[in-house]
Design goal:
This protein is an alpha+beta fold and 314 residues long. It has two domains: 3-178, no CATH class; 186-297, Nuclear Transport Factor 2, Chain: A. The protein is built from eleven helices and seven strands. The protein has helices at 3-25, 28-43, 53-77, 102-108, 123-129, 134-145, 150-157, 161-178, 186-201, 205-211, 236-247, and strands at 89-90, 212-221, 233-234, 253-259, 262-268, 274-282, 285-292. Helix 6 packs across helix 8, helix 7 (150-157) packs across helix 8 (161-178) and helix 9 (186-201) packs antiparallel against helix 10. The protein is globular and about 65 Å long. Interacts transiently with the RNA polymerase catalytic core formed by RpoA, RpoB, RpoC and RpoZ (2 alpha, 1 beta, 1 beta' and 1 omega subunit) to form the RNA polymerase holoenzyme that can initiate transcription.
Length: 314
């Protein structure tokens, strides 16, 4: 394989590798660094020594992401306020770069030893993955989501195949227990987000409460760089009051976006701070709302998505 052929083959794998690293680290910027490091390592290899390029890249990126995850856990202990994953923001309906590779897992893994993950790498999933140990998270992502055999996952995490099977099993149970109940269609998601905007713009607390699950959780992430909630808020009444206090003022710019493949909002408030709202729905109601304001985590927001908020904020 020539150098050009190797480069073309790597680029064909890049989207999958980015999803893998992102699901492992919860950071798109870290994911990009992992994939770039894998490319630099690949360039030092003799192509003839690599029997299966996709497997080699998967293992290499998995190891790099595991290293990043370990150091990131230490940084997050010193993080100011609530830490949230870095959202991937795209235009509404656009193909998300975090679209699931569940089809690969279905083809490659024993159905008894995998989770059913046929949605994007959502903010909700990333938050559930944060509860796992680094080894559990990598085992789950590599095996259940990307279909890597236990033997190859063991090479990444330094465990036997039997130990990896146990890691993945425990992780799978935690993920299934932490995932939102029920499924919500995209049309229903869009309807709820539009109704949410109308209620906030109209300072309509009763309508807003009707959109929120009684046990809804509101989280905010400013990273100590901009104002944000320091601690999560729980319960529909409290969350509704906080939201109206924050969102009743007409933003400078607003637009519908997709956040990790699901309908969300992007706003620029009166002080010029960019904000992304990620909704998690279950049974037609908002069960979690994550507000990301840390500018370091909003680098994926495409320019031009935020226009005059007229149609959004009457």
């Amino acid at each position: 394989m020539s150098t050009d052929d190797l480069a073309h083959a790597f680029e064909a794998e890049r989207p999958r590798l980015l999803r893998l690293a992102y699901a492992t680290t919860g950071s798109w910027s870290d994911a990009e660094d992992c994939v770039q490091d894998a490319w630099l390592r690949l360039r030092t290899q003799d192509p003839a020594s690599i029997r299966n390029l996709a497997a080699w890249l998967t293992t290499t990126v998995g190891r790099l992401a595991l290293d990043v995850l370990g150091s990131a856990r230490v940084r997050r202990e010193r993080y100011v306020g609530t830490w949230l994953p870095e959202p991937v923001v795209t235009a509404p309906g656009a193909r998300s770069p975090v679209a699931s590779s569940a089809a690969t897992a279905r083809d490659a893994a024993d159905p008894a030893d995998r989770a059913t993950l046929d949605e994007e790498v959502s903010m909700a999933l990333l938050l559930v993955l944060e509860r796992l140990s680094p080894a559990q998270r990598v085992a789950f992502v590599l095996h259940d989501v990307f279909g890597l055999p236990f033997e190859e996952v063991g090479d990444v995490v330094g465990r036997s195949p039997a130990a990896v099977r146990q890691l993945a099993s425990r992780a799978r149970q935690d993920v299934e227990a932490g995932r939102p109940r029920g499924r919500t269609s995209r049309a229903e998601q869009e309807r709820v987000v539009e109704a949410f905007v109308a209620a906030c713009a109209g300072d309509d607390l009763p309508t807003l409460l009707g959109l929120l699950d009684p046990d809804v959780t509101l989280r905010g992430d400013g990273g100590g760089k901009v104002r944000a909630l320091r601690h999560p808020v729980q319960g529909a009444q409290s969350v509704g009051e906080v939201l109206l206090s924050y969102l009743r003022n007409r933003p400078r710019g607003a637009g519908a976006v997709d956040v990790n493949g699901s309908p969300g909002l992007a706003l620029v408030d009166g002080s010029g701070v960019l904000t992304v709202l990620a909704f998690t729905l279950a049974d037609g109601r908002v069960v979690a709302l994550d507000i990301v304001r840390n500018p370091d985590k909003l680098t994926t927001v495409p320019p031009g998505l935020l226009d005059d908020p007229g149609p959004w904020w009457p």
